[in-house]
Amino acid sequence: MKELVEVIAKSLVDDPSAVVVEEKEKDGELHLELRVAKEDMGKVIGKQGRAAKAIRAIVKAAAMREDKKVTVDIVE
Q1: Which of 4, 20, 55, 74 has the fewest beta carbons under 10 Å from its own?
Q2: Nearest alpha-carbon partner for 16 in 4, 8, 27
Q3: Which CATH class is domain 2-75?
Q4: pLDDT score of 39
Q5: Can you list the residues of the chain whose pLDDT is less than 50?
Q6: pLDDT for the residue numbered 73
Q7: Contact indicator for 76, 38 with CB cutoff of 8 Å
Q8: Could you tell me where the DSSP H helices lie in the chain?
């Protein structure tokens, strides 16, 4: 899942080297924290959060195939 989020985020931003995804497991649930450069934050979130919702939907669909529960948080 981590690699999927990295690929999607790197394709959206101007500075792909600043994309960092941290993986944390808690209570059998996988939490992914996505960090990007401050100037790329708007591109990852999108208008009215549409890009962020799309990223979460793709990851959720991939997680369902593996019977896992995954959340994606975009942090500064």
Answers
A1: 20
A2: 8
A3: alpha beta
A4: 95
A5: none
A6: 95
A7: yes
A8: 2-12, 41-45, 50-65
